[in-house]
Amino acid sequence: MRIVHCADIHLGRQRLDGRLPDDDFARALEHIVARAVAWKADVFLIAGDLFDTPQIPPPVLRQACRALAPLKAASIPAIAVEGNHDRHGGGTERATWVKYLAEEGLLTLLATPFRESGPELKPYDTQSGSGAILETGGVRFVGAGYLGAGTDRKARAIADALPADGRPTVLLLHAGPEYFVGEGGGFKKETLDALREKITYCALGHIHKPMTHGGEGNRPWAVNPGAPECCRLEEADQAKPRGWAEVEIETGALPGMALSRAVIRDFEARRPVLRVQLDVAPFGNKLKAGAEAIEKAALKAIADAKPKPEAIVRLFLHGELNIGRIAVEPLALGQRLAEEAKVAGVEVNLDGVKLFTGRPGSASAADGLTTAQIERLALEELLRERPMNELEEHATELAEFCVKLRELVERGADAQAVLELLEQSPLPARMNDREKSLV
Asked: Is the pLDDT of residue 270 over 90?
């Protein structure tokens, strides 16, 4: 059996305050679907986060329908689970757009409800459009999806509940390793080892970085292919290949020998992202028109990098800057540079800039520190003076967390991106634990 496995498509993602086209993500899905059809895949897997948010505009739904249609035309079944971005928050059972696509016959949505007795592993019922297990072509597909803070415990429970009949089994799990996603939101290595006893191949999602676990060479048994397109611009620095996985399972093989190949393929058509560095020290104090000089130098640095018109430029400023004379507003500067350089977008990063007052003999506490360092120190001091729920020993972590929140807002991130940061940080869980201890 030939399987194409992808995850974290994030249709509808907004980047750079919506200044970048959101059809980049649709193009990525269309490309992977086309490869699956050309490869004559038997099954197409989506391991969560097909959409970036549970509330999508009509054009994004059209993108999904158009991208998945060739699979239906080629009689390649698409099997999906919902990720944290696909679902409504608060544990609600409200219908999702992934469910809508299932009702339209474009995919089969698997989900495992959990009762007091444990996971409810019912076969998929075409009449109700619900179920946890779908068997096709001699392979059992089990949909776990996004299990939240109980991922480790629930994943083990699913493995324990599966029959040990030696049948090739594929688990779709929207989760990553605990050390990567933070406390309570991932799986332990021991849990992964336990899954291996029942699972032939584990189709992972959630972590946009490509990751493989177990096996040798081209036979890793648990794979996260990585987000094909850059949801966050810093993802351009991640390892390649990333985009989707091509998996082959021998249905007639002995137990433990069914997986013959699992290889991650790279989505080479993703929008290019360039890193450009600029030292602002030569313009940071001496020139009256310092901000204009910095903008002119930035434009030259971008031109020297020779970006394509469709490229995104990440401009990192560093060096000393006189805050008494020069003010740089990142968002406005990025918009002007993108227009002048004729590129898709420019993101300006000031974290490496060291600030000083420029006043002789009146050194400031901020002199010689970067903007990021000043923010963190100020927040740490405030948090130590006014500790939150007696978490003063975590003031440094809290300060870092607050700075990341500020960066998300500055970049025009939506509420779902903020929720994602909250889910990946152990701090909210610690604060909740403290509140519970006081009850």
From this structure: yes
